[in-house]
Amino acid sequence: MDYVHGYSERESERLRDQSGILEGLLHRDTIYPAGSHVLEVGCGVGAQTRILAGKCPEVAFTAIDISGESIVQANALVKEHQLSNVRFQKASVLDMPFADACFDHVFICFVLEHLPDPRAALSEVGRVLRPGGSLTLIEGDHGSCFWHPETAASLAVWQAFVRVQQQLGHDPLIGRRLYPLLAGMGFEISFVSPRWVYADSGRPGFLDGIVNRIIVPMVQSAEARILESGLVDPPLWEKGIGDLRKSAESPEGTFFYTWFKGVGIKTPG
């Protein structure tokens, strides 16, 4: 898989920061029954795994990722938090080494946007999920993002970031598609809801966390691709990144973004 953010240590740090900052927003209603077996698809460095396993200590988690290096980091993270209810395995969501209907629930977060064919992944997920089991999806939507002060340079950099991901054949606007994706794969919709975050200088620490620990590092992770694409040149890149940061530093600064969370139930048949 061609991952637009890459696998640098800075990106791993961003993912861990992001999970902590957004834990309440995304996971306040993520609870699995004791004794169930849950598959996490695309666990990455374990940022979400640590939260899930900590919230549900009597649940057995199997967490897979296509990157062996990421799995090593994920395993170290759950051990650091003294969690023993997770088993990690290197595997692709498009061809999982599991029997049919062997998981009670499946959890996927920030993965579908990076796949050229999300429906193929959901088809394979449906195969390993038992009838009556749940599938939880969480994805962002880069088209929902706005900030103040907005400048031509900051907007150009953000749009270039979106465009290079689209050039890979991926969908950075996939959040708005969760309902049709679940419904189209035959899942009974439990709910799909926006999980929006708004930050301003009234809560400077929170604003800094959203902008400088999630958004700016996320864009910077694709710097080489963006500059290579020619969508922006180096001077415009530097100004645009600086202007994005100003939304966290200015007394008038504000930032808004929407993630989407959906839960579907696999129907018998």
What would you note in describing this structure?
It is a single chain. Helices cover 42% and strands 24% of the residues. With 269 residues, the protein is α/β, with parallel strands linked by helices. The chain has a single domain, classed as Rossmann fold, CATH 3.40.50.150. Strands 1, 2, 3, 4, 5, 6, 7 and 8 form an 8-stranded mixed β-sheet that branches. Helix 5 (118-128) links the parallel strand 4 (103-109) and strand 5. Helix 1 (9-21) packs antiparallel against helix 8 (204-220), helix 6 (152-167) packs across helix 9 and helix 6 crosses helix 10 (234-249). The protein is globular. The mean pLDDT is 95.
Quick summary:
With 269 residues, the chain is an alpha/beta fold. It is built from 10 helices and 8 strands.
DSSP E strands, number: 8
Strand content: 15-25%
Q: Biggest β-sheet: count, sense, barrel? A: 8 strands, mixed
> What's the assembly state of these chains?
single chain
Average of per-residue pLDDT values: 95
Rounded to the nearest angstrom, the distance between the terminal CA atoms is 32 Å
Count of discrete domains:
1
Topology as a string of helices (H) and strands (E): HHEHEHEEHEEHHEHHHE
Radius of gyration: 19 Å
For this structure, what is the CATH class?
Alpha Beta
Looking at the structure, the CATH topology is: Rossmann fold
Using the alpha-carbon principal axes, give the shape.
globular
Question: What is the SS-derived class?
Answer: alpha/beta
**Number of helices, where a helix is a run of at least 4 consecutive DSSP H or I residues:** 10
- Please name the fourth-level CATH homologous superfamily: Vaccinia Virus protein VP39
Instruction: Using the 3D structure, state the CATH architecture.
Output: 3-Layer(aba) Sandwich
Low-pLDDT segments, ≥5 res: none
Portion in helices: 40-55%
